[in-house]
Amino acid sequence: MRDADTSAGTAVDDAIARAAELVAGSSYLIAFTGAGVSAESGIPTFRGQGGIWGSYDESHLELGFFRREPAIAWKTIKQIFYTFTLSVEPNDAHRVLARWEAAGRLRLVVTQNIDGLHRRAGSRNVAEFHGSCDELVCMRCGGRVPAAAGLLDSLPPRCECGGLLKPGFVFFGEGIPADAYETAFSAAAMADACLVIGSTGTVYPAASIPRAVKRAGGRVVEINPEPSEFTDEVSDVLIRLPAAEAMRRLEAAVDAI
Predict the structure, then answer these.
(1) Which of 125, 192, 206, 233 has the fewest CB atoms within 10 Å, counting from its CB?
(2) Whether the predicted pLDDT of 193 surpasses 50
(3) Which tens digits make up the pLDDT trace of 115-161?
(4) Calpha distance 107→27 (Å, rounded)
(5) Dist. CA 208–CA 59, nearest whole Å
(6) CB atoms within 10 A of CB 150
(7) How large is the average pLDDT for residues 174-187?
(8) Does the active-site annotation cover 118?
């Protein structure tokens, strides 16, 4: 067992060293993040063991169901995204990415997450591919308001115009925000390196972004405790660690170059 542990540790060390060289040598680095980047903040992933959809009905986030049964849908939404998710804090993975952006090393974070943790950590160049919990949008007038706690005291929440307020994230059956889509794929076409952090690679069209980097000749560093759909076909380097630990070690390795 000790030999196996030593071998695994050596593999991780080697992967971090290779990833650090790619990051340090990059002239246009982007990051692509999934649910795994927020796991160490205490937010469970949606699918798989311990995933959110093991406890809640996924259909409550379908746009058609929301229109038909907004009070029922909002009860689930509030429990998942507003009672718990918005009370958590960014972890070191979010913070390292924010520091790299501030230092000019990282151009853009493309995230599948709707928890707002990248922005709370200090990132400003963020393409929220699936929208965000932080705003509510009126389904009648299109107005947007901050997701203040008082608005959720009575469900479903209503706009000043009387229209139904919907979370500002993408529901099943709803299109990707055009500005996030265009920003993400434009950056992917220019990127010479991409960090893929905590994504299974199963949700499209978001999962096409690292693949677009690869097609354009960029290199892909994947951070994930377990292999994903990216591992065999897309990733040049796989760091098999949780996101926060991996990013702390990768930051130190880049700084040492």
Answers:
(1) 233
(2) yes
(3) 999 999 999 999 999 999 889 999 999 999 998 768 888 899 999 99
(4) 9
(5) 24
(6) 7
(7) 95
(8) no
